[in-house]
Specification:
By secondary structure, the chain is of the alpha+beta class. 24% of the residues lie in helices and 47% in strands.
Length: 283
């Protein structure tokens, strides 16, 4: 009888422990849920997700409230992908922490700059606002869209050249895909001074991957008897999504032979005039 009674007592004890455990577990769960709700009420975002190109800054805004009965200093920190950077602004000034009076609230702007090499996709950016007594977090998200961007330049960065009147000059232009998406059907054309001619090879680039470049050979022909001076050739590169332009300056000089011929013509004219003066001046 004693053993049976002890066994039943043990079962009742186990049952009470089980109920107590469930109660404690439920209480912990409710406390955790309450804490998360409290934090979300204390730290409110305006917009959680922003979309833009990799070259654009993302500006997230949130309102932080101090619900304690004492002044709190909140440190601001963002968990960023590699190569990204961010700064925080409050009341028109850059900040890394905020001191907020009891019951007061403050609006925070987080400006995020993606790495130029970031590929299109969604990126989580948790923002933390922590004080010695509380910790708050908002999970922002930046959606990077692909960008079309092209740059027209030269291999050496030089955008000027010299040539002699009536001659030609050959140089290269460089096409660079500085966006994050492939570029197709890129066409290049030119606007030249009157009677000038240009040969471009190639005149069309079928496909150019991000970060890649291609050269276009240009041969410019100046007309005969072009007056010495500076002339501008404009090159335009474009497709359905993007375009770029380049102004190329050409300085035309007269040839040495032309200079000597002109000089001799002047001497002959002077000699002819002098001879006429001597001949007819005596009469």
């Amino acid at each position: 009888m004693l053993n049976r009674f002890s066994f039943h007592s043990w079962l009742r004890s186990i049952g009470k422990l089980h109920v107590s455990f469930l109660f404690i577990l439920g209480s912990v769960s409710m406390s955790t849920t309450f804490a998360q709700q409290t934090h979300s009420e204390h730290f409110k975002p305006n917009l959680i997700n922003l979309e833009g190109a990799v070259s654009d800054p993302f500006r997230f805004q949130a309102t932080l409230k101090n619900v304690s009965d004492q002044v709190e200093t909140f440190d601001l920190k963002a968990d960023l992908p590699a190569g990204w950077r961010a700064n925080f602004t409050a009341m028109g000034s850059r900040v890394t922490s905020l001191q907020i009076e009891p019951g007061a609230e403050q609006q925070i702007t987080m400006e995020v700059f993606p790495s130029p090499s970031t590929k299109p996709g969604n990126y989580d950016i948790p923002l933390h606002a922590s004080s010695p007594n509380t910790s708050n977090k908002i999970d922002f998200q930046a959606s990077i869209t692909g960008s079309h961007n092209v740059e027209l330049t030269t291999p050496e960065g030089k955008v000027s050249n010299d040539l002699v009147s009536g001659s030609s000059k050959t140089f290269n232009l460089r096409v660079e895909n500085t966006g994050s998406l492939p570029l197709s059907d890129l066409e290049i054309d030119s606007r030249l001074p009157s009677k000038w001619e240009a040969e471009l090879e190639p005149v069309k680039i079928d496909q150019l991957e991000p970060g890649k470049s291609a050269d276009v050979q240009v041969k410019l022909q100046a007309p005969e008897k072009t007056i010495a001076g500076d002339y501008m050739a404009k090159f335009t590169l474009k497709n359905a999504n993007t375009q770029d332009e380049l102004d190329y300056r050409l300085t035309v000089k007269t040839s040495i032979l032309s200079g000597w011929i002109g000089f001799l013509v002047i001497l002959l004219a002077i000699g002819l005039i002098y001879g006429l003066i001597r001949k007819y001046g005596r009469r």
